[in-house]
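Record pair follows.
FIRST:
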Amino acid sequence: MEVLSYSEGFYNPRRRHSRLGNVSPDTYQKIHQKSLTHIEVFGR
């Protein structure tokens, strides 16, 4: 249970992924959300 908790809570969100352009899932999500907000506001 503790290993799963560590894996889900710390390791995976911060580990860089090559499929995400070598950024962490957290960083990728922030970039993606920011681009969606820009699209919604500016329409492109």
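SECOND:
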Amino acid sequence: MALYARKEAYIQQPAVPQNPTREPAKKRNLITKGEKFLYLSFVAVFVLCAVLVLQNQSVIQASSQEIQTIEHSIDEKVKQNTDLSVQVSELSRYDRIWAKAKESGLKPNERNVKVVPGQ
């Protein structure tokens, strides 16, 4: 019996024949059409948001530059107004007005002087 068992051990089992006519397995798409649509729509929305952010930044930059230009012109006008106020105060001094009146041949007349209240 032991001899018979040994013979059986050496007998090769018939190999399972592989099916040569069998076609190779098709690759299955890992990403479905719905997922592709979702990914593409997400990318489109992301790009749209990025473009909107850049557009808003350019509008903000243009507005900021315009504000700076206006502030600069305001500063120049304030400086001009200050200079003109100084000129007015210098030109309206009493002794200067009196000298111009004498040059023009005017003489003081006490009867023609009118006092304006509050000044």
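COMMENT: Residues 38-69 form one domain.
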